[in-house]
From TrEMBL:
Keywords, in A-Z order: Disulfide bond, Membrane, Transmembrane, Transmembrane helix
SUPFAM superfamilies: Trypsin-like serine proteases
Gene3D superfamilies registered for this protein in UniProt: Trypsin-like serine proteases (2.40.10.10)
Organism: Onchocerca flexuosa
Single GO molecular function: serine-type endopeptidase activity
Record flagged with keyword Nucleus: no
SMART domains with a match to the protein in the record: Tryp_SPc
Keyword S-adenosyl-L-methionine tagged: no
Protein name (record): Trypsin
Family: Belongs to the peptidase S1 family. CLIP subfamily.
Domain Peptidase S1: 110-382
GO BP terms: proteolysis
Residues spanning the membrane: 55-73
Length: 382
């Protein structure tokens, strides 16, 4: 079966639903692999295609339930790094991932991290549950936030043994009790130099939430929550990050840096939460097989991992925060969201060995995210 999605006058997307992930998913750490196929090489179910059709093999950003093969059809030769923009008002790939008014950052903490400067990660938001800060989130459009599903446990100290629908606040309760704060690097203005004279956070209610599957499958994988804001954000104060399945990257694209962010605890300075948003830099991601070997426990397949250390790690209160990669053009791409790892207090006290910090690989949920945010228009069967 073949589907076509009209984008512009001379450009369409064709997708064949019968392709399989094993054939199409390249190495995890290449954000996109672009290859050209002839119609004969593509699939027996694809009709013979005109020579003007270019078939792109995409990364595992697109899950097995979604289309894998995209063909850009044009009567003109497409320019290098061309970006296809669906008719979507909440996300523009040409605007995503751009920092706002960045200056030299202060040096400080996450645990062992540094202060984020105003406008450096303007897509990072604070999530409050019943007026209490609980988690970090990331703007993925001007009206949608992604975070971790485990942020919606009823108990502040959840365990996998006590994980099911009855242990979570319902998605309906979340609409009444959850607020999203955005537009500042500081949870509150203060007399401390890094948060002195900064703009206060803006508060936004949510009108839709989706995370119930995580609890229905007893917290085994799928630690992802999607929130829809009541109104669009003020783009003078914030921006949304890029998503891997919505931009085309060159085959040789390299990550300039990888960072995690959060307002979470720093036991080395005896702080439950940091008022100034913190960032932690990583040189690379850990191979998934090595991650499972280090962790020594059964891990789901939708994960990314970074190394832990005694003095630097993602901590309590950083849950749901973005794991991001900076591209060669300076823009930022969201790779994952912080899920779980070793207690920072135990690491700081050397009461536990550093293992791995685990993130949900959001690229495995691209179809779900697109559906929730309404990014792609309905496909037309042809």
């Amino acid at each position: 079966m073949k589907y076509v999605h009209k984008i512009q006058r001379h450009i369409s997307i064709i997708a064949n639903e019968v392709w399989h992930c094993e054939f199409l998913c390249p190495h995890l750490f290449m954000p996109f692999t672009i290859e050209y196929f002839t119609s004969k090489e593509a699939n027996d179910n694809m009709h013979k295609l005109p020579s003007t059709i270019k078939l792109f093999r995409m990364h595992s950003a697109i899950p097995i339930t979604f289309a894998f093969i995209f063909a850009f059809i044009s009567n003109v030769q497409p320019k290098e790094n061309v970006v296809m923009v669906p008719n979507e008002t909440h996300y523009d790939p040409r605007k995503c991932g751009v920092s706002l008014n960045v200056h030299k950052p202060y040096q400080l903490k996450i645990m062992g991290g540094t202060d984020v400067e105003m406008g450096e990660h303007p897509w990072t938001v604070a999530i409050y549950l019943k007026s209490f800060y609980c988690c970090v989130g990331t703007l993925i459009s001007n009206k949608h936030v992604i975070t971790a599903a485990h942020c919606f446990f009823k108990d502040v100290k959840p365990t996998l043994k006590l994980c099911g629908p009855k242990h979570a606040i319902t998605e309906e309760e979340a609409l009444e009790n959850v607020k999203v704060m955005y537009g500042s690097k500081c949870l509150k203005p203060s007399n401390v130099s890094s948060c002195f004279n900064v703009l206060p956070m803006k508060t936004m209610a949510i009108v839709r939430a989706q995370y119930g599957r995580f609890f229905r499958q007893r917290c085994c994988g799928g630690d992802i929550a999607l929130l829809e804001l009541e109104h669009e954000i003020d783009e003078k104060d914030a921006n949304y990050i890029c998503l891997a399945n919505r931009i085309l990257l060159s085959e040789n694209e390299k990550f300039y840096t990888i960072q995690a962010v959060g307002w979470g605890s720093n036991p080395t300075v005896k702080r439950i939460f940091m008022n100034n948003l913190q960032k932690l830099e990583f040189h690379r991601l850990i191979d998934r097989d090595k991650c499972k070997q280090i962790y020594g426990k059964l891990l789901s397949n939708d994960i990314l991992c970074t190394e832990e250390a005694y003095s630097r790690n993602v901590c309590l209160g950083d849950s749901g925060g973005g794991l991001m990669a900076q591209l060669h053009d300076g823009r930022w791409l969201l790779l994952g969201i912080s899920s779980y790892g070793t207690s920072c207090k135990k690491l700081a006290d050397k009461a536990a060995q550093p293992l791995v910090q685990v993130y949900t690989d959001i690229r495995m949920y691209s179809g779900e995210i697109d559906k929730f945010t309404g990014y792609f228009l309905p496909w037309e069967q042809v």
